[in-house]
Amino acid sequence: MKRFVLAVLCVLAAGVIASSAVSASPPRTQLRTLQCVTALDPPSRAISITAVMRPVSATSKMQLRFQLYARPDSSHPYTRVHGGDLNTWVTPNNPTLGQRSADVWTLIKQVVDLKAPATYRFRVSYRWLGSHGQVLGSMVRTSQTCYQPELRPDLQVRTVHVEAVTGDTSQNAYLAVIRNAGATAAGPFEVQFIDGQLVKTRSLSGLAAHTTIRERFTGPVCSTGTATVTADPVDAVDDYNRTNNSLHVTCSETTNTSLHSRVR
Predict the structure, then answer these.
(1) What is the DSSP pairing of strand 146-148 with strand 79-81?
(2) What is the largest CA-CA distance in the chain?
(3) Which one is predicted more confidently, 26 or 244?
(4) 139 near 29, Cβ under 8 Å?
(5) Distance between CA atoms of residues 245 and 191, nearest Å
(6) Is the pLDDT of residue 162 over 80?
(7) How confident is residue 3, by pLDDT bands cut at 50, 70 and 90?
(8) pLDDT-derived band of residue 142, with 50, 70 and 90 as boundaries?
(9) DSSP letters of 181-226?
(10) pTM, 2 dp
(11) How far, in Å, CA of 169 to CA of 80, rounded?
(12) Measuring CA to CA, which residue among 117, 100, 1, 120 is closest to residue 57?
């Protein structure tokens, strides 16, 4: 009886060892080493992922497909990014890789020149094909996210207020509020005032991030004419949003109260 119990225990132990050996086998697919490189210069922004793939039984060919998704903020859904070989199936350079049980395919995918601000993530598809091209199996894995902040300056002409000039009824003062809403300081740039044929330019040494300055120009009385104030008219600053660099001022004929609208 003792021998029988001992034999049963040995069989059970062997089963546990075999089960452990099976569970310890390497996974067929893995995603490793998500790298998220942020930068001031857009071409230097990057995201990369390492995909690892091992064959299943009867594999003739292994394939991978990398898809990159992005969203500008949490209120928007993720949308697919296009470019290069994204969204297409790729195969190993060695066409026989995957035909041996011990084969491992490791592929690093990098995407650069990312738009910001945005959050990115990879969706990686794995596919095993048989000798006749039939799909033996497939799997999809999704990476962690990579947030790319916009680090460049953002010069804005926020408002232009028109006032009378004391003692001179032929002139108005134009008080422009210029702000750098970006995350980094802007280097030297100009502020330009144009009213008809009159052009005045003011040179500034720069503007720190999230700070505001006020510039005052004098020009003809703004009644039926128009005036424009532009920050950085010659594009000296790597400004990520130039649509708010100018403000076109249309003045009331009776009150000189300015009405504002974006012109760029």
Answers:
(1) unpaired
(2) 121
(3) 244
(4) yes
(5) 10
(6) yes
(7) very low
(8) very high
(9) -SSS-B-SEEEEEEETTEEEEEEES-B-TTEEEEEEEEEE--SSSE
(10) 0.77
(11) 59
(12) 100
